[in-house]
Amino acid sequence: AKSNADLMARRRAAVARGVGQAHEIFVDRAANAEVWDVEGKRYVDFAGGIAVLNTGHCHPEVIAAVQEQLGLYTHTCFQVLAYEPYVELAEKLNALAPGDFTKKTLLLSSGAEAVENAVKIARAFTRRSGVIAFSGGYHGRTMMTLGLTGKVQPYKSGFGPFPAEVFHAQFPNELHGVSIEDALASIEQIFKNDIEPERVAAFIVEPVQGEGGFYVAPVEFIRQLRALADQHGILLIADEVQTGAGRTGTWFACEQWGVAPDLITTAKSMAGGFPISAVVGRTSVMDAPNPGGLGGTYAGSPIACAAALAVLRVFEKEQLLARSQALGEHIRTRLSAMARELPTIGDVRGLGAMVALELFATVDGKADVHKPDAALTQRVLREAAQRGLILLSCGSYGNVIRILVPLTASDALIDEGLDVLHASLKAAQA
Ligand code: PMP
């Protein structure tokens, strides 16, 4: 029989050390919000492959669509021989993106690739080079996206130099002492110290920081950022790789802004486990690069397009946007009850079903926001895994537990997972 320990030993011997792993578990099979490991142990999955499984593991409709596509063709390269699923997916994403203007779409394979291309497109349109990203932001592991990422350890360390003309402003984070005014002032500082606004092509911002800790960008801040962008002819890019595909209660989180970004990057849950990503944006901007300037051998793979179209149908049929809102509310209510009982939980927050809690050391029986507790967070993850729940941490201080459970999970399974989380939080208190 196979064991996790044996497979971990083979992994350590054969796979580069730099690839991290949250849990020392090897999967055997998975369905919706449950996974079974190679030793036959069952887990409730609150990680969803890092925000990829809003429609659950192996949704039958997604699998059926992929199987049908496998019987027709698997690859032609869209730049050689085109196929309808690519065009249909582009039409659907254009219709879903907010903004009172026409849109076009470019398909790629990973989130980082979408962000790379959004920057290329913004530069081609504006004929400017500068990009302003935010502290704590995460945009991927390629050179440009690492440059944009606002966290050195473990992502950027040892890999530089990164492309020039990238600057970091402060992300507003009330809990950790950065007000909206502070964040806006930090942009003015960049204009004063580093680059004139006339040379800035784009701002790139996550509607809710993902890897950075599930901090929601205040709508008031986004509106002011939009105004600043308009004032200086700068584009606004919403990186929705983690927030998109219904996680936050709307298809794109930026639908809740009341102002539209010029470009949106999206990936992860849009195809329910198959690798595809997109840049969706204003037609005039999207059409700036010359023919041949955009693309990729596998970009917009027909298999992944078929999966993405099936995901969109599942969202309609199962009303997953409403589910995302209701589920988020339910999870937040339960986490808030746990926070009243356990003083180490210093904050519960989120948007739709993108929910997190943040753990701190206590002083006089109260969470101290100056003492993020990453060790406690890791203990909770281990306690939960032992009890059959897969959790993920995140955050600039490593002290946030995030919930990315499939929206298709039953109420009973959600509550089972939350009960285990509750027990694990209690067990992990020092
Ligand atoms: N942007 C954001 C906001 C992300 O959360 C991620 C992945 N965690 C990426 C970009 C990179 O996506 P990928 O890993 O698919 O390249």
Can you offer a commentary on this structure?
The chain has 430 residues and is an alpha/beta fold. The protein folds into two domains: 4-58 and 319-428, Aspartate Aminotransferase, domain 1 (Alpha-Beta Complex); 73-317, Type I PLP-dependent aspartate aminotransferase-like (Major domain) (Aspartate Aminotransferase, domain 2, 3-Layer(aba) Sandwich), CATH 3.40.640.10. It contains 14 helices and 16 strands. It has helices at residues 4-14, 48-51, 60-70, 84-96, 111-126, 143-148, 152-156, 180-193, 219-232, 283-286, 302-317, 320-341, 374-386, 411-428; strands at 27-31, 34-37, 42-45, 103-108, 130-134, 166-169, 200-205, 235-239, 263-266, 277-282, 345-351, 354-363, 366-372, 389-390, 392-394, 400-403. The strands form three sheets. A seven-stranded mixed sheet has the order 4-10-9-8-7-5-6, sandwiched between helices. The model has no long low-confidence stretch (mean pLDDT 98). 4'-deoxy-4'-aminopyridoxal-5'-phosphate binds next to helix 5.
Defining key terms:
alpha/beta; 16 strands; 430 residues; Aspartate Aminotransferase, domain 2; Aspartate Aminotransferase, domain 1; 14 helices
Form type: globular
Count of separate structural domains = 2
In spatial order, strands of the major sheet run: 4-10-9-8-7-5-6
- Number of helical elements: 14
Distinct small-molecule ligands in the complex: 4'-deoxy-4'-aminopyridoxal-5'-phosphate
| CATH fold title of the largest domain | Aspartate Aminotransferase, domain 2
